[in-house]
Amino acid sequence: MQSNTLSLKIKLFRDKKSSEINYLYKKKDPSERPMVLDVLLQAQEESVDDLSFRYGCRARNCGVCTVDINGKPRLACRARAKDNDVISPLATLPVVKDLIVKRDNISRQLIGFNNIASKNNLNVEADKTYHNLTACIECYACLDGCPLHKKNKPVEKDNNNAYPFGNPFSFLKLQRLYIDPLTPEEEKLGIIEKAKSLGLETYRRDYKNLKIKCGVGINLKEEVIKPLLNAAYGDQIEKKNK
Ligand code: FES
After folding, report:
1. Residue whose CB lies within 8 A of the most ligand 1 atoms, among 60, 69, 87, for a mutation test
2. Which atom of ligand 1 is nearest to the CA of 65?
3. pLDDT tens for each residue of 64-78
4. Distance between CA atoms of 150 and 155, rounded to whole angstroms?
5. Residues 77-112: pLDDT tens digits?
């Protein structure tokens, strides 16, 4: 028989202290299969009225609702809640409050590297890979398991320059610029140098834990990391393999 409730744990972080609540989600009817975001919204309405979390589109478009569910990053608006699920903030970024993490330091890595945005004509002639990369919703789930992002320890909330090392998201943005037909040839060298300065080389030895496909279906190894490694170190790799 289907139950009318789901029992979940929500981990909260406030004032540098962590705590957790056991929350019993009340289904609207026994057949309901709520998303984790539905659970958070009900918990906020009925139990913890200042529970903090982010959401926007509720349709896998904006990427801001990402939380860890049982230790793995998921979009809360798209993940079905199950009995005994544990919901916590993304482990890869510093917590601001409850389930809200500080996101802006990641994009700060790329300040000054989108000089061509004003010339954008939507690139209807660009190849398929370019358009695949525009599908990134910036959910930051790809930080999980990244050997480079792990080096950014300690993750400091108040230091805007706390992330000297890159991650699949940053490299995706650089690769998209690199293959953008509007990027002048003379700027491509700067893009590769930026990728190198963020530690791209680490992936030559260690990217086995990197997610292959992200949540919106971008193949991070084939469409982002491999082509960047090829552009940055293609000669050396070929020589090594001879
Ligand atoms: S709320 Fe926009 S992706 Fe989940």
Report:
1. 60
2. 4
3. 999 999 999 999 999
4. 9
5. 999 999 999 999 999 999 999 999 998 888 888 887
At the second CATH level, the architecture of 104-240 is Orthogonal Bundle (1.10)
Q: Which two tokens stand for residue 52?
A: 């903090």
63 CA distance to ligand 1 centroid (A)? Answer: 5
The residue whose CB lies within 8 Å of the most ligand 1 atoms, and thus the one to mutate among 69, 75, 99, is 75
Least confident of 118-122, 199-203, 214-218: 118-122
Check if CATH label 3.10.450.350 holds for domain 5-100.
no
Q: Is 62 in the pocket of ligand 1 (CB under 6 A)?
A: yes
Domain ranges, ordered by start, for the chain: 5-100, 104-240
Atom of ligand 1 lying closest to residue 62 CA: 2
